[in-house]
Structures are given as C-alpha cells and as structure tokens.
Write a structure and sequence with these properties.
By secondary structure, the chain is α+β, with helices and mostly antiparallel strands. It has 9 helices and 13 strands. Strands 1, 4, 5, 6, 7, 8 and 9 form a 7-stranded mixed sheet that branches. A hairpin with a 5-residue loop joins strand 11 and strand 12. Bound molecules: (3R)-3-hydroxy-3-methyl-5-(phosphonooxy)pentanoic acid (PMV). (3R)-3-hydroxy-3-methyl-5-(phosphonooxy)pentanoic acid binds next to helix 3 and helix 5.
Length: 329
C-alpha cells in the first residue's frame, strides 16, 4: 500500500533544486455543491465519491515559500508557534518535499477570507502551498498532478487548484493517481454565494474524525454513494442547461443528506447551532416568498446561500450581514 511519500515521489521524480529565490501563488476557497464525505483511503485522502465545488474567485490564500535556515510559518504577518497544531500539520506536509538536501522552509501565508466568515481555509491553504512549491522548484506540473499533491494535505484542497466549477473524480485506483480535480468548461457569471457567519469558534469534531465515525456507524451511509452520484448527474444537467432551481434544490438536499448521515452516527456528529437553523429557516421563508435562494452547509455551523444576481437586492435585505461573493468574477 502506498503512503504519502510514495505518492509525492510518483509525481515529482525530480530534484529539489530551487529555480527561484521563492515561489508565490494564490488559491481560492471552494464550496461544494455535491459533498465529499467519506474516505476510501485515510492516508491518501481518497474519497468514496466524486464531488463538485465552486471556487470562490479572489477569496482565498496567497502563499510564498522560500528556503530558510529553519521551518517557519508566518500567517498574516505574524509568526505562528511552531509547536502548535497549525504549524505541525504544515511541517508534516512539507516533510514530503525535502528530498536528499533536506531543506527547511519559510512559509509566508496571507488570507483574504474575512476572519468573520468562519469558512475553513485548509483547502485554499494546502492548494496555495503546492502551487507555490511548484513555482519555487520550477516543476511545471499539470493541474491534475497539482491537485493530487494538494489532496494529500486535505481532501477538499484537491479542488482549490482550479477555478469555477471543479469536479474531483473519486477514481478507483489504490494509488490514487486517478483521484484528482478538474475544472468544468461551463461558467455561470450571475451565480452568487452569500456567506452567513454563525460562529467562528473551532468545530467540535474535525472532518477526518467525523467522516470516519459516520462511515463506521451511520446506518444511512450505505445509501450515500448512490445518492451522491445521482446528485452529481443532476448538477451536471443543471449547469449545462442553466437551470438554477435544479442547481439550488440539488445542492441543498445533498448538504442535508450529508448532515442527516452525521446526525445518525454513534455518537452523533452535529455541526448545527440554533443560529444555523434560523438562517436555514430564513432561506426557506425567502423561497416561500418567491425568492430563488438555496443554502448549503459544510462541516461547521455557517450557512452558505446560493442565488443569482437577479435576487441580490432581496437576499441582501433579508441577510444584511452576509458576505456576497461572485465566483466567476
Ligand atoms: O477537506 P476536508 O477533510 O476538510 O473535508 C471537507 C468536507 C466538506 O467540506 C464537509 C465537504 C466538501 O466537499 O468540501
């Protein structure tokens, strides 16, 4: 069985000789319309199902990486405690990129995700780091290979190396070389995402633990792969035909199905707060009043609204605190 180092070596096969003093790159956060929930391989972050997301345009992480005398992480201008979990996770990831020379790295990372948005940034963080390493070493890797490397940091990071609608193919191979993300050609310039922040405190259970527990204990998990494949097909049709209601309905019910699986795990995994429920009810009420708006939620309490530019005024008046994003610029 392959480990992370084997996967990195299979792609790089090249030396670790820097081609520049530093490498710098940006990667967006992404919001899944068809969720990734469950791994078929924990070490390589190989998913049970394919998933589909939208990258959030200019919102994400910019990372600069350079060779240094020790491993150091600077986040938004402040040095991060090297013994803390954030830095340790990053250094552990970088351990796969040391080659024979065993270089140390200075990672300077900046995020323009509003802190209050409460959106996980590990996806854009690992994607930006891989893209920056690609610049530093002049690897000129394909998006497919970059996606595979980003996946080894965090599953959803595999989708953050591309923009627009991005499908992460689950793949079937044990080495994961067919499990990578790919951008779709279709765009939807009028699509808008509204981030409703309910809480920015750390989640009670991390997604790795929650995925494992739900797969092992929820009686509903066995239905998930089939359900997820159907949703992905519906989303493909919706995006091809620009059928907004089909897109919204499918994304919303896919998210609710994922959370239902979590609720029925033992012990249950519940990321919802009372305020999440209030926001979801608000979206449903808006819909009853004739406004085309839907929601999705990930492994956290914050709610993400999906709507089109034509509904912007109404949505913004109902949710004045929402951060509105135009994923297609
Ligand atoms: O990449 P991870 O391990 O943080 O998993 C995230 C999974 C969800 O955000 C809940 C769904 C998704 O597809 O992004």
């Amino acid at each position: 069985m392959l480990n992370k180092q084997d996967a990195v070596d299979a792609i790089l096969r090249s030396s670790f000789a820097p081609k520049a003093a530093s490498g710098k790159a940006f990667a967006p956060i992404n919001i899944a319309l068809c969720k990734y929930w469950g791994k078929r391989n924990d070490e390589l972050n190989l998913p049970v199902t394919s998933s589909l997301s939208i990258s959030m345009g200019h919102l994400g992480t910019t990372t600069k990486v350079s060779i240094h005398d020790r491993d150091q992480v600077v986040l938004n201008g402040e040095e991060i405690d090297p013994s803390g979990s954030f830095a340790r996770r990053l250094f552990e990831y970088l351990d796969r990129y040391r080659g024979d020379d065993d270089p140390h790295y200075l990672v300077e990372t900046e995020s323009n995700i509003p802190i209050a948005a409460g959106v996980a940034s590990s996806a854009s963080g690992f994607a930006a780091l891989v893209l920056a390493l690609n610049e530093l070493y002049g690897w000129k890797l394909s998006t497919r290979d970059l996606s595979i490397l980003a996946r080894l940091g965090s599953g959803s990071a595999s989708r953050s190396v591309a923009s627009g609608f991005v499908e992460w193919h689950a793949g079937a191979r044990e080495d994961g070389m067919d499990s990578y993300a790919e951008a779709w050609a279709e765009t939807w310039p009028d699509l808008r995402i509204g981030l409703v922040t309910v809480s920015t405190t750390e989640k009670p259970v991390d997604s790795r633990t929650a995925m494992k527990r739900t797969m092992q204990t929820s009686p509903l998990y066995e239905g998930w792969p089939g359900r997820s494949a159907e949703d992905l097909d519906q989303l493909r049709t919706a995006i091809r035909e620009k059928d907004f209601n089909l897109l919204g309905e499918t994304a919303e019910s896919n998210a609710l199905a994922m959370h239902e699986i979590m609720f029925t795990a033992n012990p249950p995994v519940n990321y919802w707060l009372p305020e999440s429920k209030t926001a979801m009810d608000g979206v449903r009420e808006a819909r009853s009043a004739g406004i085309d708006v839907y929601f999705t939620m990930d492994a956290g309490p914050n709610v993400k609204m999906i709507f089109e530019e034509r509904s912007l005024r109404e949505v913004a008046s109902i949710f004045p605190e929402a951060e509105i994003i135009s994923p297609f610029g």
